[in-house]
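User: Design a sequence. Structure:
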């Protein structure tokens, strides 16, 4: 799987690119953009081939249990320490949990899509925090953001010291260059970037919008399958990792860092994506959501949404997630004598939902692609009037829910909306009206 490149052909300012991928989630991989760059039999030899530097990238504590330990060795042209001094970036709209600027209301909330600005904005400029919970400094909880961008990052790079980024494009493809190589993602795919990994984002389709879950807690992992057994849900083999692709460029560049909830920037005189080879199990990856193997009922009753969990960040309480990433993909519904949309419910978990494309079966109107909803802890919610009447009177033949992709970030902690989210014009102030038409059917 290595990309073999003759060192005589590597010129300054040339970008070595590849769209090949390694496979597997959480497994150790190795890749080199230059044959022989990867040391054999040791991680940090006295001298690395081709005059490269060895650098260890750790996403967990050194002493984390073996099965949970995440680290990768980079073999790069210059070490990451070769950079300027950071200074605060003004005007950033990013926030960390806990959100204290406004009180979190218990109301059900829903938003129309947030428009992409007309003023120039790259991926960093277009980041805006919608909600957050927990405490980033204590490494619990998560942040929920939109990115609203209309131009590629030019000579600009980014890394997040506060948490890992789960990126869901909703409009337009992303071409993401990372220290480990290159990943492209379109709507219907998700990219996971480890905490601290440097990257740059290009927009091959122009204006782009999407959702981000910033996980402050334990790194995302595949959930246990329990009695389901060895196969089903998201499979390891469907997660794609990039092949090494060194960017050897010198000049004036900006490195932006999210640290303790704020953005800081410094100058560097070379591209920070100058990794020629790498080996380890902490790397960016992408996953095509339609590959999710849906497990559902073939008898009766609507099962819990936990059966649609793609990735989970566990907390210190077993079975109660710091944050889960859940999807509602195309699937067959065959249950008999059953109300098939999600039932009315209140629960201890808090739910932020978004829609990539299509229609969500519990909300046929008002919840549109690019929009969002928030139902916090013990906030009652469920199908609107139209969905209830339709599902209550439908002929229960097998039917396939097609052309849809909704998702949910679910957390044990209250999800606190920011002032931006509460005051933005796209918030649907009349959202609760969707339940006002529910009729009394009680007949003693």
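Assistant: Done.
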């Amino acid at each position: 799987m290595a990309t073999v490149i003759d060192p005589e052909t590597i010129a300054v300012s040339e970008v070595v690119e590849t769209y090949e991928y390694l496979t597997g989630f959480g497994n150790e991989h190795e890749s080199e953009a230059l044959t022989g760059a990867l040391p054999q039999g040791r991680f940090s030899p006295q001298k690395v081939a081709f005059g490269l530097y060895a650098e260890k990238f750790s996403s967990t504590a050194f002493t984390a249990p073996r099965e949970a330990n995440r680290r990768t060795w980079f073999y790069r042209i210059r070490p990451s320490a070769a950079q300027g001094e950071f200074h605060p970036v003004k005007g950033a709209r990013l926030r960390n949990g806990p959100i204290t600027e406004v009180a979190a209301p218990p109301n059900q909330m829903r938003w129309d899509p947030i428009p992409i600005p007309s003023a120039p904005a790259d991926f960093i400029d277009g980041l805006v925090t919608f909600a957050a919970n927990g405490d980033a400094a204590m490494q619990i909880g998560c942040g929920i953001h939109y990115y609203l961008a209309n131009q590629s990052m030019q000579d600009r790079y980014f890394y997040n010291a506060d948490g890992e980024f789960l990126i869901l494009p909703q409009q337009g493809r992303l071409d993401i260059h990372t220290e480990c190589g290159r990943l492209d993602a379109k709507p219907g795919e998700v990219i996971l970037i480890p905490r601290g990994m440097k990257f740059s984002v290009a927009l091959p389709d122009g204006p782009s919008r999407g959702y981000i879950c910033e996980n402050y807690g334990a790194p995302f992992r595949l959930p246990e399958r329990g009695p389901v057994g060895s196969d089903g849900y998201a499979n390891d083999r469907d997660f794609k990792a990039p092949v090494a692709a060194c960017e050897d460029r010198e000049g004036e560049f900006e490195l932006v860092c999210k640290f303790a909830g704020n953005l800081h920037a410094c100058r560097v005189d070379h591209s920070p994506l100058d990794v020629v080879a790498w080996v380890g199990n902490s790397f960016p990856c992408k996953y095509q959501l339609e590959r999710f193997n849906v497990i559902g009922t073939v008898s009766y009753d609507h099962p819990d949404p936990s059966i649609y969990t793609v990735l989970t960040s566990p907390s210190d309480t077993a079975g109660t997630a710091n944050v889960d990433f859940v999807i509602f993909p195309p699937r067959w519904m065959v249950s008999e004598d059953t109300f098939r949309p999600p039932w009315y419910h209140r629960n201890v978990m808090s739910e932020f939902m978004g829609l990539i494309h299509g229609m969500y079966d519990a909300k046929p109107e008002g919840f549109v692609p690019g929009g969002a909803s928030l139902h916090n802890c013990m906030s009652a919610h469920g199908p609107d009037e139209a969905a209830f009447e339709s599902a209550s009177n439908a002929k229960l033949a097998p039917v396939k829910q097609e052309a849809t992709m909704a998702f949910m970030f679910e957390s044990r902690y209250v999800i606190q909306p920011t002032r931006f989210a509460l005051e933005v014009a796209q918030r649907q102030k009349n959202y609760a009206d969707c339940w006002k038409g529910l009729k009394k059917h009680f007949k003693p």
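The mean pLDDT is 93. The chain has two helices and 30 strands.
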